[in-house]
Design goal:
alpha/beta, 9 helices, Rossmann fold, 8-stranded mixed sheet, 4-stranded parallel sheet
Amino acid sequence: MTDKPKLSMLTLGGTIAMTAASAQGAVVPKLDAADLLATLPELEIDLVTHDFRQLPSPDIGFTDLAALAEKIEQEIADGATGIVVTQGTDTIEESSYFLDRTIGGDVPIVMTGAMRHPQQAGPDGPANLSAAMVVAADPQARGLGTVVVMSDEVHAARYVRKSHSTSTGAFTSPNAAPIGHIVEQELVLLSRPRPYEPLPRSPRLTETSIGMVHAALGDDGDWLRPFAEHTDGLVIAGFGGGHVPSRLVPLLAELAEAKPVVLASRTSSGPVLTRTYGYPGSEQDLLSRGLINAGFLDPFKARVLLHVLVSAGADRAEITRIFHDSGEISVS
């Protein structure tokens, strides 16, 4: 006989934990870990639970994530062989990436939530939570880093996106695919992401401000300067392969001299190019003026990564190197 997996479950609120707060039926996060577990069959695991936060996911910030990462590391040090985190789905693609980049080791961190709250017909929370437990308890999941488990699919944190506002199949990995599936309550692992060395979490996380803006048709950029003045770094989500209106180029070049400015694509799939287009405002033009290529990282994950790096005091060369590696940028 083998010892049961020792899992720690941390709840942060979200749709999976919501119930009606008034006669009108609008829901708010109120259910705790015991309430969530009551919906599941008996589990063959040793489980410790922590009601860590009770928030809708738009209210989760870097202060919460830093505290969550510290608590997860404590649980791992105390012997947890797997971690399960429940939270709202609106920001799970960002919080999962933060944990993936700042927590080292082989213990799997599995995040899940729900698209339908418990008072709707066919709530998906119980099935998602059960699947997350399966993944966290499986030895195959060691070394995967942080993953998001929804609708019996396992998505790597670096790729996962919420691609629909209401569907239970909302979560996709546009630049890859699910790395695994839950089949008959077992993990079927299809691929294994390349591991990253963990990045430091600085006490300045809560003091750092990283802005994100999207290129838009006809944008003259008049509003950008006063916005950018209040940030420590900037992510520009450009058109297509990393393009902006030419009238924005002088300002972006000026900003890139003063602070790190990362160029991502607003398309949510595919990379920022490096050497295809050469007109003013093209990727070649912007990169030559000091903007940093996000590669395959979408703008939201690029912002998380830049926030971590800037708060830790990384210089431009280090930021560029880490983005080059994280964005899977071709060196040919």
